[in-house]
Design a protein that fits this description.
Blueprint (H helix, E strand, L loop, with lengths): L2 H19 L5 E9 L10 E7 L4 E6 L4 E6 L4 E7 L4 E7 L4 E6 L8 E6 L4 E7 L4 E7 L4 E6 L6 E6 L4 E7 L11 E4 L4 E6 L4 E6 L5 E6 L9 E7 L4 E6 L4 E6 L4 E7 L4 E7 L4 E6 L4 E6 L4 E7 L4 E7 L4 E6 L4 E8 L9 E4 L15 E4 L3 E5 L3 H24 L14
Antiparallel strand pairs: 1-28, 1-31, 2-3, 3-4, 4-5, 6-7, 7-8, 8-9, 10-11, 11-12, 12-13, 14-15, 15-16, 16-17, 18-19, 19-20, 20-21, 22-23, 23-24, 24-25, 25-31, 26-27, 27-28, 29-30
Helix pairs in contact: 1-2
Length: 422
């Protein structure tokens, strides 16, 4: 092999490795903390969030104040507060209708409804009766339907709502004729399937959205109720489903082509929710007990960074408009905004105060001014194995090339031009 070929080969290898490790050059930083709900109270309980891509807004359910806060991603300020019937919980954005569907109710009330909020008016336009204690919800864009997991029904089941009529069109049984806690759900657009976390069995049920039938049950490595399967998110880039196990501090990775587990990733204390970042191809997992967010690479199924969020980090919503992740902090009624940065030590400090537009089911309800308090919070990166490996590999590659070049350069006699070796 000629020196020129070796040189070209070395350049190609360096380029390939640089591209493969360029992803680690991105850092993440908390750039804003937004007050919502009832800050400073004993029971703030701000749980879930969903992102409205058409409006560039984030909807946050405030169970402690029976409201939904609407946040603008351009100002990181609350622009509206929507009163709900009772205890709003999980919610999802329907891009086909420009509406947000919100679960209401809990096991104590035995009531279960889904409220429909128009994102053009920020007002409730319908209330749909479902099962008891609706706890998980997902939008099926192919069918124009909303799937709702009812955790307190016996047997546990899912209600299917048509977004064109706002009525229940089907009910799907998820387990046997006994009480079995249910967790979150996610829609797999690549397969046309719904993945449901069955807490009581520590399994994941796979439902066809065309037949409403159970087509698979994915067992985990944990005994029933030990792992506490809860949050579910779909990664379209890999065709995988990520499921949190709050009882054992892990995230399980499921292949949707085989409906089998391909990895178990250790994260922080009590991971509850997960969300997919389509820009970086990473999965964010909220660790409620230690108030952090673990960021998992979907190419290695390993944690690459851990960020400090707020007290009781819980719900997650990825904002595609600005490539940001919104984290609800259930313990202190705030939402942390995580942004991408070329250096994780960079901290952005600013503040924004706006007067929100008040919308409600009652014209007499008013909303006070909400401010966005921005705080700096840097990432806590794991040891940069990829970066170290890249440095060592590049050094060895260059050294090998120089050695090879040294050995192949022809040497002539003193005072003579070197003889060319062909």
């Amino acid at each position: 092999m000629t020196p020129r070929v070796w040189q070209l080969f070395g350049v190609v290898l360096i380029a390939i490795f640089a591209l493969s490790t360029a992803h680690s050059a991105y850092g993440f930083v908390v750039t804003a903390t937004i007050p919502v709900g009832k800050p400073g109270t004993d029971q703030p309980y701000d749980y879930y969030a969903t992102y409205d891509s058409a409006k560039g807004e984030v909807f946050v359910s405030n169970s402690g104040s029976d409201t939904v806060s609407v946040i603008s991603d351009s100002t990181n300020a609350v622009i509206a507060t929507v009163p709900m019937r009772y205890a709003p919980y999980a919610l999802t954005y329907d891009s086909g209708k420009g509406e947000v569907f919100v679960c209401n109710g809990n096991a104590a009330t035995k009531l279960g409804t889904v409220s429909v909020i128009s994102d053009s008016t920020n007002a409730v336009v319908a209330n749909v009766t479902v099962g008891s204690d609706p706890i998980g919800i997902a939008y099926d864009s192919a069918k124009g339907e909303i799937f709702v997991a009812n955790s307190d029904d016996i047997p546990p089941d899912m209600s299917v709502i048509s977004d064109s009529t706002n009525t229940v069109v089907a009910t799907i049984t998820l387990a046997g004729n006994t009480y079995v806690p249910i967790g979150g759900i996610a829609y797999d657009s690549g397969k046309g399937e719904i993945f449901v976390a069955i807490q009581g069995y520590d399994t994941v049920a796979v439902i066809s959205d065309s037949t409403y039938a159970l087509i698979a049950t994915v067992p985990t490595i944990y005994p029933p109720q030990a792992g506490v399967a809860y949050g579910v998110a779909y990664d379209p880039g890999k065709g995988e489903v990520f499921v949190t196990h709050a009882g054992v501090n892990t995230v399980t990775v499921i292949s949707d082509s085989t409906n089998s587990i391909v990895a178990n990733v250790t994260v922080g204390l009590t991971p509850e929710e997960v969300a997919y970042d389509s820009h970086t191809g990473e999965i964010f997992a909220s660790n409620t007990v230690d108030g952090t967010v673990s960021i998992i690479s979907d190419s290695t199924n390993a944690v690459v960074t851990t960020l400090k969020a707020g007290d009781g980090a819980f719900g997650l919503a990825y904002g595609s408009g600005k490539s940001e992740m919104f984290v609800t902090n259930a313990g202190d009624s705030t939402v942390s905004v995580i942004s991408e940065s070329t250096a994780s030590s960079t901290t952005t400090t600013s503040s924004a105060t706006t007067t929100p537009t008040t919308t409600s089911q009652s014209p007499t309800t008013t909303q006070s001014t909400a401010s966005s308090t921005t705080s700096g919070g840097g990432g806590v990166p794991e040891f940069p194995y990829q970066l170290v490996a890249a440095t060592v590999f590049t050094f060895l590659l260059i050294a090998s090339y120089l050695l090879l070049r040294h050995r192949t350069i022809p040497r002539g006699h003193v005072g003579q031009a070197p003889t060319t070796i062909s």
